[in-house]
Write a structure and sequence with these properties.
The complex is a heterodimer of chains A (245) and B (258). Chain A is of the alpha/beta class. In chain A, 46% of the residues lie in helices and 17% in strands. Chain A is globular and about 45 Å long. Chain B is built from ten helices and eight strands. Chain B has an eight-stranded parallel beta sheet. The chains are: A alpha/beta (245), B alpha/beta (258).
Chain lengths: 245, 258
């Protein structure tokens, strides 16, 4: 077992889904030691508490194999802040936000208190990017710069149509990390050249993407074995161990 | 074998700063078992499209066994646009490629609809970049397909990450829409293939924006789909061969001499 998958989903949603045993079987088959799981689509959008409890219980059942990011829809306001605090105190490892599924702009004023609380708890924050008009790399950079002590993972590295913006956003904000899901080998290798392997995290975003395929990509990257170990495991291990930078 | 239905023959001037060379392209195709590539323009999206179309026409004329080509132009001025379309088709091209957000027009604008109507009467093929708001939403392009049933339309990215379902619904609603798997997520490709029974789907790499190893990886995306092997073969080869044959038959004898 070698790798840490920095971002995937478990649970059966309305549009896609994967059951616990399917995830564990594939982790075994493709050498993934630990997967960072977030709840399924509907639980990201609305049933946050149900989803968070589900993935947290999975980490309690498989503490050596799974870590969990919670999610809260910022539109729940104080309820979202309370849920984030509950999850953080229960030992969950990070916060996932999805501006498209959850229907907000990263610059909406009710987002900042959530970000601030997650940063206070030392939680890395995963935010999917690449979908206009609400999920954009330069908006993430603006927010990341407001919280220099925070750790932000720019999910999808701007794929598909914001690959141009993704580069200056990561260059501008030293607390933004990127993940490998969706991106071509050459794009990932270019990111490593530009930002260093320390800023890149292996992820599968399964079941939306294929664990088999995304793991194959990690193995096919034309990089040193030291870089592969950083991307494939050590970088995310550091975030999970320290609760951030 | 594989047919790559989404490659660009770069002039090296805009966007991608290396000009495509036929020998290199063929080497890269051979390395990935690609029998034939559809060459799309790149520099011609921005300026001097007639000269860029001529480059592709020449390459296809030299190696019709390995390449097919489409041209491009701005649809803003309808009369010269239709003239360039006719010139491209008479020189052996199988259709026209549009990249509406790079070329700054909406498929629903009057000027484009007039060009599409002319194309419909010629029963040709339009290849679109799709999946990116505000100008390449699949349903915008589906309206072009609905109004022009004799025009064959290929959605070059199957809606990409966010609009693949819309591209699938567009294709399920209109028989003249084909989908090209290129940048579409695993879950989306799986659902599209199942809903369409493996039909009217082709595969493309986006070469040279996707390099030789990226192209291999994108072929493996198809090989890793949980669908019957026979459908994978159709997507990677047979559907594209049928589509190319349909348009090659119309353009036989029309190409320039090598």
């Amino acid at each position: 077992m070698k790798w840490i998958d920095a971002h995937c989903h478990v649970g059966l949603g309305l549009m896609n889904g994967m059951e616990e045993h399917q995830l564990l079987e594939q982790m075994d088959r493709y050498g993934i030691e630990t997967a960072v799981v977030a709840p399924w689509d509907q639980a990201v959008a609305v049933h946050n508490r149900e989803g968070n409890d589900y993935v947290r219980r999975l980490t309690e059942k498989h503490p050596d194999r799974l870590a969990a990011f919670c999610t809260v829809n910022p539109w729940f306001g104080q309820q979202a802040l309370d849920e984030l605090e509950r999850c953080a105190k229960s030992g969950m490892s990070g916060l996932k936000l999805h501006p498209v599924y959850q229907g907000f702009q990263l610059t909406d004023p009710f987002i900042l208190p959530l970000i601030e609380k997650a940063v206070d708890f030392g939680l890395p924050i995963y935010i999917a990017t690449g979908t206009p008009v609400s999920s954009l790399p330069m908006a993430l950079s603006y927010v990341a710069d407001l919280f220099p002590e925070g750790t932000f993972i720019q999910g999808h590295f701007g794929f598909p149509d914001f690959w141009i913006d993704a580069v200056p956003s990561v260059r501008k904000s030293s607390n933004i990390y990127i993940d490998t899901a969706y991106n071509m080998l050459s794009s990932i290798e270019n990111a490593i050249r530009l930002f260093g392997a320390e800023r890149v995290l292996f992820s599968t975003d399964s079941p939306y993407l294929s664990i088999r395929h995304e793991t194959r990509k990690l193995l096919d990257l034309d990089i040193t074995e030291e870089q592969r170990r950083l991307i494939g495991r050590d970088n995310m291990w550091k975030h999970l161990s320290k609760g951030g930078r | 074998m594989v047919i790559d239905f989404h490659t660009h023959f770069s002039g090296g001037r805009y966007f991608y700063n290396e000009a495509s060379r036929v020998e290199t392209v063929l080497d890269d195709m051979d390395a990935n078992r690609i029998e034939k590539s559809l060459l799309l323009p790149l520099d011609g999206f921005f300026s001097e499209w007639e000269a860029d179309n001529d480059r592709i026409i020449r390459v296809v004329a030299e190696r019709p066994d390995r390449f097919a080509g489409v041209g491009t132009f701005s649809p803003r001025l309808v009369e010269p646009a239709v003239r360039e379309m006719d010139r491209c088709l008479s020189q052996g091209m199988i259709g026209i490629k549009f990249h509406p957000w790079l070329q700054a027009f909406s498929p629903l604008e009057d000027c484009f609809m007039e060009v599409a109507s002319e194309a419909n009467s010629r029963k040709t093929l339009f290849f679109f970049h799709d999946g990116t708001p505000p100008y390449t939403e699949p349903f915008q392009i589906a309206e072009v397909a609905r109004r022009n049933p004799d025009l064959t339309i290929v959605l070059g990215h199957s809606g990409l990450n966010d609009l693949w379902r819309e591209s699938m619904l567009a294709a399920l609603s209109h028989d003249n829409i084909w989908l090209c798997f290129c940048g579409c997520p695993h879950w989306g490709m799986t659902e599209i293939a199942r809903r369409m029974g493996g039909e009217r789907i082709v595969w493309g790499s986006d070469y040279p924006l996707a390099g030789r190893r990226d192209t291999k990886e994108r072929i493996e995306q198809i090989e890793h789909l949980p669908i019957p092997d026979e459908w994978k073969e159709r997507i990677l080869y047979r559907n594209a061969a049928q589509l190319l044959a349909r348009f090659r038959n119309r353009t036989d004898g029309a190409g320039v001499s090598p």
